[in-house]
Predict the 3D structure of the following.
Amino acid sequence: MGRTAEVARKTGETDIQIWIDLDGTGTSEISTGVGFFDHMLTALSRHSLIDMKIKVAGDTWVDDHHTVEDTGIALGQALAQALGDKRGIRRFGSVAVPLDEALVMAAVDISGRGELFWDVPIGPDKVGTFDTELAQEFFTGFARQAGITLHLHEVAGSNAHHIIEATFKACARALRAAVESDPRVSGIPSTKGTL
């Protein structure tokens, strides 16, 4: 049985359908109505090797906030569902990812305690029409709903596009390591016996 999940989330602001496969190859079909965000989610899929189908209809005539935040929430729910009882996973993952002048470190613990620790200062307020503060909103919703402890730390960077893209890629690579099956682990990777 594959580690897949499907989540539908509909509110007065967004209508989201997500399907993921943790044991994929990083292929994706992404359509959120927010071009830069689509680009980031495609990178998240590709570098985590998590196959993703994400379709979002959001109130982008207001702004992109609800679309980005709610997608993070729904994707986090899908990750938690696909992980199941977390038996046999590596649990931890950490990486530093460069993108030109930007360097971002990510560390993930699939702990069952969802929280984001964000230290990613982004100078410019916009990348095209995308509000750069929405990157943090996405990762906050994602980490909380996935039940993961997620640290994101910018070591260097000046270009907002590079910083945000390095953040998504770093998260992806750390997730890839954390969700992988570990052949040496037969049960839950915790002294408590649960995550």
In short: The radius of gyration is 16 Å. DSSP finds four helices and ten strands in the chain. The mean pLDDT is 97. The first strand starts at residue 4 and ends at 10.
